[in-house]
Amino acid sequence: MAGNSFGKAFKITTFGESHGKAIGVIIDGCPPNVEVDLEFIQQELDKRKPGQSKITTQRKESDTCSILSGIFEGKTTGTPIMLLIPNEDQRSKDYSHIQDKYRPSHADYTYQVKYGIRDYRGGGRSSARETAARVAAGALAKLFLKQYNIEIFSHVSAVGKIQAPNLSSNNIKELLAIREENIVRCADPATAKEMENFIGVIKKEGDTVGGKIATVIQNVPVGLGEPVFDKLHADLGKAMLSINAVHGFEYGSGFEGSSMRGSEHNDIFINPEHSNKALKTLTNFSGGIQGGISNGMDINFNVAFKPVATIMRAQNTIDQEGNDVEITGKGRHDPCVVPRAVIIVEAMAALVIADHLLRNKAYQ
Amino acid sequence: MAGNSFGKAFKITTFGESHGKAIGVIIDGCPPNVEVDLEFIQQELDKRKPGQSKITTQRKESDTCSILSGIFEGKTTGTPIMLLIPNEDQRSKDYSHIQDKYRPSHADYTYQVKYGIRDYRGGGRSSARETAARVAAGALAKLFLKQYNIEIFSHVSAVGKIQAPNLSSNNIKELLAIREENIVRCADPATAKEMENFIGVIKKEGDTVGGKIATVIQNVPVGLGEPVFDKLHADLGKAMLSINAVHGFEYGSGFEGSSMRGSEHNDIFINPEHSNKALKTLTNFSGGIQGGISNGMDINFNVAFKPVATIMRAQNTIDQEGNDVEITGKGRHDPCVVPRAVIIVEAMAALVIADHLLRNKAYQ
Amino acid sequence: MAGNSFGKAFKITTFGESHGKAIGVIIDGCPPNVEVDLEFIQQELDKRKPGQSKITTQRKESDTCSILSGIFEGKTTGTPIMLLIPNEDQRSKDYSHIQDKYRPSHADYTYQVKYGIRDYRGGGRSSARETAARVAAGALAKLFLKQYNIEIFSHVSAVGKIQAPNLSSNNIKELLAIREENIVRCADPATAKEMENFIGVIKKEGDTVGGKIATVIQNVPVGLGEPVFDKLHADLGKAMLSINAVHGFEYGSGFEGSSMRGSEHNDIFINPEHSNKALKTLTNFSGGIQGGISNGMDINFNVAFKPVATIMRAQNTIDQEGNDVEITGKGRHDPCVVPRAVIIVEAMAALVIADHLLRNKAYQ
Amino acid sequence: MAGNSFGKAFKITTFGESHGKAIGVIIDGCPPNVEVDLEFIQQELDKRKPGQSKITTQRKESDTCSILSGIFEGKTTGTPIMLLIPNEDQRSKDYSHIQDKYRPSHADYTYQVKYGIRDYRGGGRSSARETAARVAAGALAKLFLKQYNIEIFSHVSAVGKIQAPNLSSNNIKELLAIREENIVRCADPATAKEMENFIGVIKKEGDTVGGKIATVIQNVPVGLGEPVFDKLHADLGKAMLSINAVHGFEYGSGFEGSSMRGSEHNDIFINPEHSNKALKTLTNFSGGIQGGISNGMDINFNVAFKPVATIMRAQNTIDQEGNDVEITGKGRHDPCVVPRAVIIVEAMAALVIADHLLRNKAYQ
Question: Distance from A8 to chain C by nearest Cα, in Å?
Answer without folding.
Answer: 9
